[in-house]
Amino acid sequence: MLASWSSGPRRPMGAAEWDITAPAQTRVLGRVTFMDVPVPAGIAFRRLSPVAGRPLDPLRTTTVAEPGDGPDGAPFDYSVYLERGATYDAEIQPNDDTLALPDEASSAPARTLLPPLTLRFTVPSTGPDRARANLEYPASLAQRCTASLRSACRLSGVVRSAAVSGPNPTVSGLTVRAIDAVSGAVVSSTDRTVDGRFTVRIAPTSARYLLEVSGVADDVATPTVTFDPALFFPGDQDPVLLVPAVSEVRRTVAVRTTDGTPAPAANVRFSGTDVGSSPLNLYGTFVAAGVTSSDASRLGELELPLLPGAYSVRVVPGQPVRAAVLETALTVGSGDDTAGEPIVLTLPVRSRLVGTVRDPNGRAIVAANVDALARRVGAQPSARSSHSTTDPTGRFSLDLDGGRYDLVIKPPDNTGYGWLVVAGVEIGTGVERSASYSVAAPVVVRGTLRDQAGVPLAGAVVRAYALVGPTGSIQIGSGSDKDALGGEREGVATDEAPATYDLLVGQASSDASGHYELLLPQAL
Questions:
Q1: How far apart are CA 375 and CA 379, in angstroms?
Q2: Fewer beta carbons within 10 angstroms: which end of the chain, N or C?
Q3: Contact at 8 Å (CB) between 345 and 301?
Q4: In terms of domains, do 100 and 13 share one?
Q5: Last residue within a domain, chosen from 244, 275, 310
Q6: What would the DSSP string read from start to end of 150-163?
Q7: Span 479-500, pLDDT tens digits
């Protein structure tokens, strides 16, 4: 499997011949270890494309249980082909396979003993046709966290219930992990409390993190609470995390549409920072979340443990409810104040875009895929992407939240037309819009993909991207993903400008002779 690469940016001014040669690649092999013990994990090798504004698809692999012997005689448990001279971030994610460490009393799933880890390395640009990259967890992960060592260390503590009176009992069965204070990404191993005690290892790149305590998956009876380590560092004692006692503060939440119809399968999330009270003031955020019932007896309702306080509320309706996302602020009073009345959340009406797609002669384009892609930069956070297909009359209909979208219309391949891309379509809240779209003759870009030896590359996916900014398209570049048709693209780099992002505007596959043909829009 070859890693993805980019050959741009380029600006097609008309039909063009773009032959693409794959960069020189070399075999990279190595081991993932901690304290010389092999770590079972998935690895994503990721680097930014030379085209500013978008990352390449990561190349993913996993370690093998039985290491092999490399050409240099040393063992290896992963092997990939990467571009020579390129710098990669190796993102290591320990998995559920069993791991036994010398500083642990018993073996356990690797993800409960070690954190995710990102290591950067550069593949040699010259030399033999192989390179070794051993990926090692830092030895400091065996050391206890202190006031001067808050990351790349081992943090132990105890979780207790914040009782109204009397002693604070320990709480078992809760999940504890560290999350990045800005992105929310997990930056530690994950542990389950036993007699209240937990131990997590914090990743070395975690400069600012929070401790998150929650119930097991799908446990809506237990809220999620975060704690700021700054409130218990420094200190020689293991931190005590007080979680709120919520057994007596369960509230019924009812989600309805504007006409009063119950909304089942809606995702409901209450998040607050000024909630309840804590003797040690350790609460960072308090989150209670769940999904409304689809059962006829409690349709559109759920119970959540909600302490009195101020919350930010987000409700994402489930299918087939035609309603928009609700984002609002809400103050929850005590049970005595509300006399057991449910908290009713009313979903706003979703907007609708109705359109027709025709060719230059006015004929309907049938079975075209129409995607409204919510803007990833500067968009309203509630906007969701939507998909439709044109009917025999060329008509389509899209239900949309209020926000800004990029509309991408993809005629069937046998029509000979390229994609039609309309960037920056503004949709208000609760409105209906209609529009007509006409596809035009495409800009044809064709060429041949070859490796360094001149051998054609068959089965590669060639994608063309437009870099889009606040005023429209900046430029169009192309890239090739060998054996990456289903690869995920995670995140968007915005080094060029805060509002610059990439937009896929064409895609093709190379045939047995390495030939490809892209049909690109004339303009955005």
A1: 5
A2: N
A3: no
A4: yes
A5: 244
A6: -SSEEEEEEEEEE-
A7: 444 332 222 333 233 333 345 6
